[in-house]
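Dear support,

Our group has been running a series of protein-ligand predictions, and this particular one with iron/sulfur cluster is the one our PI (initials K.S.) wants archived with full inputs and outputs. We had some confusion internally about which version of the output was final, so please treat the block below as the authoritative record. The input we submitted was:
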Amino acid sequence: MSLPFPQSLCHACAGNRYVRPGRGGVYLLCTRRPEKYLGQPVLRCPAFEPALEEPMPAAKRTAPAAERNKAPILAALAPRLPAAARVLEVASGTGQHTAHFAAALPGLHFQPTDADPENLPGIQAWTADLPNVAPPRVLDAVTGPWLAADVVYCANMIHIAPWAAAEGLFRGAAGCLTPGGILFLYGPFRFHGEFLAASNAAFDESLRARDPRWGVRDVDALDALGAAVGLERIDTVALPANNHLLIWTRSAA
Ligand SMILES: C[S@@+](CC[C@H](N)C(=O)[O-])C[C@H]1O[C@@H](n2cnc3c(N)ncnc32)[C@H](O)[C@@H]1O
Ligand code: SF4
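Confirmed final output from the archive:
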């Protein structure tokens, strides 16, 4: 019988334990412990010894919003992506976007990344079977490390991070993109100080309440960041749920 307590240390332990269903619940006996029945979950144990077997593969994590928006984003991206491009994704999160785009575009090469190393196993779980996706890596928009790319794609990051992340993203993209390379930014935006939808204004308020350094960004401020590093906005695509795909290119000079 398997342990009904997923967080228990016993799952990762080489100890011999036996699970016994009994009156009032499930009981655990372990040959390494003197107690007859151990309370579960076991979170600390002096007799713990790591099991030699491979750990269970990490589970895919699913964000409902990414399930909804991945198809419209791909429809907007696909005709604008250069053939055989190397796509560097910043802030991959769960990895759903990379997996969806890479499966649909087998001729392109994808490098998923995220600032949070804890996201990498989940991204790996989504992308491991795709031959055109490299293993996920840690990349913080503020500090890098940046990898050479023809396309940089970043969704839903700059509004839930300090402004320094947007600055770092433009600086990093300008530095790593090949001449003629493209920066795609997806998410909610303000346009010339105005919210195009009340829902985006409410979202901005809720973000700032959570962290005053966060907030829906204005395209004028983003264009100023781009202009400072040689990136020019060439297109703006309206997508469902009042989101946009903004597109900058690095001059081919
Ligand atoms: C809302 S999730 C978006 C995930 C995915 N791009 C999507 O649209 O479903 C925001 C992600 O940004 C990442 N992130 C936050 N700050 C970052 C930074 N400075 N550099 C890179 N990633 C960052 C977080 O770890 C998180 O995975
Ligand atoms: S030694 Fe401790 S952690 Fe390992 S199975 Fe036994 S009770 Fe669980």
